[in-house]
Amino acid sequence: MSTLFKISRIWNVLLCLAMFSCVGTTTEEKYYNDLGEIRFDEKLDDINFKVCHEDYTFPFNYGGVGLVYTGEKRELEKTYFDNYKNTRIEGQTGFITIRFIINCEGKAGRFRVEEMDLNLEPKKFDDTISTQIINITKSLDGWQAYEYEGITYDYQQYLTIKIEDGRLKDVLP
User: Fold this and answer.
1) In this predicted model, what pLDDT tens digit does every residue of 56-103 receive, in sequence order?
2) Which of 152, 150, 149, 171 is nearest to 161 (CA)?
3) In Å, what is the CA distance from 173 to each residue of 21, 28, 98, 148?
4) Whole-angstrom Cα distance, residue 168 to residue 173?
C-alpha cells in the first residue's frame, strides 16, 4: 500500500468519526401550540391569574381576535396619555412591547416585556419609563373575553408603546 493511500484511508476514517460524533441524542422540548405561547413563570406571574384552557391560547389577531377592549383603541390611548408622566430623558427613544394573555373572564395576566430602539435592536429603557408603561398596562380593565363557536377562550394580546426622549408618542396597534 502506498503512503498516499494510507493517509487517504486514515483521513476517511477520521472524517466519518467526526460526522458521527455530530449526530447525537437530543432531548426534545415540548412545544406549545403556537409560536410565542406565554407559559406560567412563578417568578413573574400572579399565582391568582388563571387561564381557562392551559392547552390552547388563541394568538393575537387569529380568527379576528385583534383588539377586544371596551372603548377600543381610543380608550386605550386615553388611558396611557392620561396616566403616563412624560420625562424628558435624551436617548430614551424606541418601543416597549408588552405581551400578555386575556383569559376567558376578560382578565389580563402573564405580562412579558420587550424593549427596543427604533432599529428594533434590544434596548433597556430607564426604569421611570418602563415601570410606568408596565403599571398602566396592568391597570387596564376593559378587556373582553373572546368567544368562538360558543366556547370562551383565552387569547394573547400585545401593545407596543412608542417613546421619544422619554415622552409617550403612540400606542399601537
Assistant:
1) 666 655 555 567 788 888 999 999 999 999 989 999 999 999 999 888
2) 171
3) 48, 35, 12, 22
4) 15
Going 172 to 135 to 33 to 115, the CA torsion angle's sign is positive
Neighbouring C-alpha atoms within 13 Å toward the C-beta of 98: 22
Query: Which grid cell is 84?
Result: 403616563
Q: What's the Rg (C-alpha) of the chain? A: 24
Phi, psi of 162 (to 5 degrees): -95, 130
Cell, residue 138: 396592568
The CA distance from 151 to 30, in Å, is 26
State how far Cα 59 lies from the chain centre. 11
Global pTM? Answer: 0.72
